[in-house]
Amino acid sequence: MNTTSPSPLAQQQQALLHTLFARPGTAQADTAHTALLEQLAARHPQTARGLAAYRANGHALAERSLIAAYPVVAALIGGDNFAWLARDLWHQHPPRCGDLAQWGDALPGFVRSNPQLADVPYLGDVAQAEWALHQAAGAPDAEPDLSSFARLGQEDPQGLTFALAPGTAVIASPYPVASLVAAHLDKASSLAAAAQRLCEGIGEHALVWRQGLRPRIATITPAAAGLVQALLRGADLPQALDTACACADVNDDWDFSAWLTAAVTDGLVIGVHRPPTHTTTEHTP
Amino acid sequence: MPAVGIGWRPPHYAALLAQQPALGFIEVHAENFFAPGGAALAVLRQGRTHYPVSLHGVGLSLGSAAGIDPWHLDQLAHLVQTIEPVRVSDHPSFARGPDVHANDLLPVPLTHAALDALCANVNRVQDRLRRPIAVENLSAYVQWRHADMDEPAFLNTLAQRTGCQLLVDVNNLYVNALNAQLRGETGEPLHPCRHWLDAIHPAHVAELHLAGHAHCGDIVIDDHGSRVIDEVWTLYRHAVQRFGAVPTLIEWDTDVPALDVLLDEADRARSVALHALSTETLAA
Questions:
Q1: pLDDT range class, residue A3, cuts 50, 70, 90
Q2: How many domains does chain A have?
Q3: Segment B241-264 mean pLDDT
């Protein structure tokens, strides 16, 4: 067991980090601050002002980073509430790396478990969809391979699968999450229609993907959701189609050909490929 | 004449690509382009086709006793390979602890132990990138109780031991001097800044930074939110006379104005540098 204690330098640095990330007004914050002052040349009141400047900068970074990923959550709860949420998340789930675009993935769970946000029960799912959009925005680029679609008519479909757009994800929600997000991000979508769906208790499967450089979100049917989720899990086309049929509503008049045409046009399906099969050697004990 | 560049921030992405003004280089914050794909990286690639790019990091946490985050270094190495920047830089600060990253430029004590940690981290980064990086002096808003040396000695030794370059932020120097004056530790702030510049070995200096700052009552903050003030231009002239025609950056990160304002500041930097260099030549 490694029992090496932190070096004096590490202890100094941790004292400052603890002071900055302890929730203001708590006993933990007071303890951390007292420990830090022993390390600082703290005789002048400017030291307290300097610490406040670092704290304020952290809070500003939290708000700026979080609103970049969650503009719809911010719009739904208002700027002041969102600033409070960002600061609270900063202290409870601090960043662990030096790229703040990676910070904020804890927000969906954070808002779901927050009793003060219980009157907006759909907020967690909206946040989940926004995080998927945020991830899609920076996902690795992939060029469509239109010539590969000829393989659909030439090869045994077993083992063939679709290449999906960067950042493709499906979020199943008991709330109209795709309509709510689209109504805030896309001027062509209606906020009133989204609100109506919310009032009627309509749930949605939200599809997130990136068309070219543009992250997109749309409502899809349960059958299409089943198909995309199966493809994301690595299913081949026959398996994915079976899943789609199993997921289809009784009233879901789902047409694979029509879906595929739209999916290619919208940049969701960008090619057809046959993943390499992995052979395994069986061992007899 | 030094190459003069500007910090390229999102409000100016389209305007810079459309106008393509004459600039020696553009500077971006490396961490903003760590995503492996998407619009941000596509824009930077476009910018790279027109200008040399200086990749300036704010998150390596070079002074951290917890070491360098291998994930962060991987992302930076990939970006360097993709963009082929003219310079790569970061700060002798820390932000990283065992389970947290403050994403700020927190000062390290000017001690032998801190210098050892900094040198080890800089060496690790340079070994991975297979090139020297430049390390920038920072504005510090708290002071550690104990120091073994002053900041120029700390930075000169860092450069000598690791082969790294130094990036001298003239505004940061002035902000630190103003805060020391507010604490009653020094008098007129220009004198200690000139002394600091004179103590830095010229062979180490690879880039100069210029920016504005904000007076916030009992503290001065390096907010990069306004024009460079006359006193900092005076120090810049002194820096150019000491370090020569070193590439110079105009930084502006908060309340970013129209692109023309940054270009105007860049013009002034060229003019001040030209005057400083011609005066130096005459004096020689």
A1: low
A2: 1
A3: 97
**A213 — contact with chain B (CB < 8 Å)?**
yes
Question: To 10 degrees, what angle do helices B170-182 and B230-243 make?
Answer: 130
CB of A138 within 8 Å of a chain B CB? The answer is: yes
CA distances from B238 to A266, B49, B137, B155, B244 (A): 58, 34, 17, 19, 10
Nearest beta carbon to residue B143 from set A6, A9, A40: A40
Distance from CA of A10 to the nearest CA of B (A): 5
Q: Round the average pLDDT of chain B to a whole number and report it.
A: 97
Residue A232 falls within a domain, yes or no? yes
Q: Give yes or no for B183 touching A (CB within 8 A).
A: yes
The count of residues in chain B is: 284
Q: What is the pLDDT of residues A29-43, one digit of tens each?
A: 889 888 899 889 877
* The Cα angle at residue B67 between residues B63 and B68, in degrees rounded to 5: 90
Phi, psi of B57 (to 5 degrees): -95, 150
Instruction: Give yes or no for a contact between B169 and B137, defined as CB atoms under 8 angstroms apart.
Output: yes
In the numeric block, which tokens belong to residue B234?
């005076």
Q: Give me the mean pLDDT over the A33-60 stretch.
A: 90
- Nearest partner of B72 among A57, A17, A100, judged by Cα: A100
Q: What number is the ipTM of this complex?
A: 0.95
**3.40.50.720, 2.40.50.1070, 3.20.20.150, 3.40.50.1100: which CATH number matches B4-283?**
3.20.20.150
Cβ contact (<8 Å) for B36 and A139? yes
Chain B CB within 8 Å of residue A2 CB: no
User: Is A44 close to B35, i.e. CB distance below 8 A?
Assistant: no
Cβ of A58 under 8 Å from any chain B Cβ? yes
The interface residues of chain B toward chain A in range 99-158, judged by CB-CB distance below 8 A, are 99-104, 106, 108-109, 111, 113-114, 117, 140-145
Instruction: Tell me the two tokens of residue B160.
Output: 């000598």
Six-digit token pair at A68? 């970049």
User: What single letter denotes the amino acid at residue A29?
Assistant: A
Go through A40-55 and write b for each residue having 16 or more CB atoms within 10 A of its CB, e for each that does not: bebebebbebbbebbb
Q: Is residue A42 part of a domain?
A: no
Question: Who among B71, B95, B145 is closest to A39 (CB)?
Answer: B145
> Which residues of chain B make contact with A56, given a CB cutoff of 8 A?
none
Within-domain flag for A211:
yes
- Mean residue pLDDT of chain A comes to 93
> Rounded to two decimals, what is the model's pTM?
0.94
CA distance A260 to chain B (A): 24
DSSP E strands in chain A: the ranges are 161-164, 169-173, 204-211, 214-220, 269-273
Chain B nearest CA to A144, separation (Å): 15
Query: How far is A60 from chain B, CA to nearest CA, in Å?
Result: 11
Residue range of the domain that includes A262: 140-285
Cβ–Cβ of A40/B145 closer than 8 Å? yes
A210 touching chain B per CB within 8 A: yes
Q: Residue A251 falls within a domain, yes or no?
A: yes
C-alpha–C-alpha distance, residues B51 and B23, integer Å: 7
